[in-house]
Automatic annotation (TrEMBL):
Domain NADP-dependent oxidoreductase: 32-267
SUPFAM superfamilies (alphabetical): NAD(P)-linked oxidoreductase (SSF51430)
Protein name: Aldo/keto reductase
Key words of the record: Oxidoreductase
A GO molecular-function descriptor: oxidoreductase activity
Lowers pKa of active site Tyr (site feature) positions: K84
Chain sites annotated for binding substrate: H117
Length: 281
């Protein structure tokens, strides 16, 4: 596994390279703070930015990207930008329209990754057909899903002509989803973690604190490194420059097999977000 720095990538099953670590912007409101956070992340080496239509902040993410490209001299091709289609738009035509709306707000010509945000029963298959069309037309470099459990993946792949490249799910030491991770790895679907730090709830966990102290790292850095060593792409959220830098500084140490086992053992199947099998949006 190539884990050298913030530009290190995994290769999706269609050959597209996706950075192992990126910036998430869930619950960050539109405005200067978000523009500056995106710009700061790119300045400090991040190449992946993850947003979604429902976050209501694509316009500021787009402004941050444009400012970052101007500041660094990078091109869009050197970044990896993800957005997601929301549940209300999960029809064929409505998904295509939602994609165009996201592109316009982000001020981009294409997305690197477009995801179905939630597996809404009876709606996500039509949305997947739209994503396949966008992919075939070269409008998006990779397509995938978010919050899909094994049975959702099996259901979509019964009819899909293109297999999802990514599945972004809640994933942290108290929700390890081992069977889902194993399934995705066996089918060459890249698992990606949202809420990797359990919205800050794990930062005082004794086992994690002890491991962090031994490595001279923060608990957040240990958790992010644990993600990466499990082969899971991760997108921690922060708007503070120092925290953005800290979260990205996870490529200069490694957890031992014993460390990994002890962190795995913290699993409690606890969610901070909705249960994909029991939600109503």
């Amino acid at each position: 596994m190539n884990l050298h720095n913030l530009q290190s990538t995994t290769v999706l099953h269609n050959g597209v390279r996706m950075p192992w670590l990126g910036l998430g912007v869930f619950k960050v409101e539109e405005g200067t703070q978000l523009v500056e956070a995106v710009q700061s992340a790119v300045r400090h080496g991040y190449r992946s930015i993850d947003t979604a239509a429902i976050y209501g902040n694509e316009a500021s993410v787009g402004q941050g990207i444009q400012a970052a490209l101007q500041e660094t001299g990078l091109s869009q091709e050197e970044l990896f930008v993800t957005s997601k289609v929301w549940n209300a738009d999960l029809g064929y035509e409505s998904t295509l329209a939602a994609y165009e709306a996201s592109l316009a707000k982000l001020q981009l010509d294409y997305l690197d990754l477009y995801l179905i945000h939630w597996p809404v029963a009876g709606k996500y298959k039509e949305a997947w057909r739209a994503l396949e069309a966008l992919y075939r037309e070269g409008r998006v470099k990779a397509i995938g899903v978010s919050n899909f459990q094994v049975h959702h993946l099996e259901e979509i792949m019964k009819e899909a002509e293109i297999k999802p490249m990514v599945n972004q799910v809640e994933y942290h030491p108290q929700l390890t989803q081992a069977s889902l991770l194993s399934y995705c790895q066996s089918h060459n679907i890249q698992l990606e973690a949202w809420s990797p730090l359990m919205q800050g709830q794990l930062l005082e966990q004794p086992v994690l604190k002890e491991i962090a102290e031994r490595h001279g790292k923060s608990v957040a850095q240990v958790i992010l490194r644990w993600d990466l060593q499990h082969g899971v792409v991760t997108i921690p959220k922060s708007t503070k420059e120092q925290r953005i830098i800290e979260n990205g500084s996870v490529f200069d140490f490694a957890l031992s097999a014993e460390d990994m086992t002890r962190i795995d053992a913290l699993n409690r199947d606890l969610r901070v977000g909705p249960d994909p099998d029991n939600f109503d949006f």
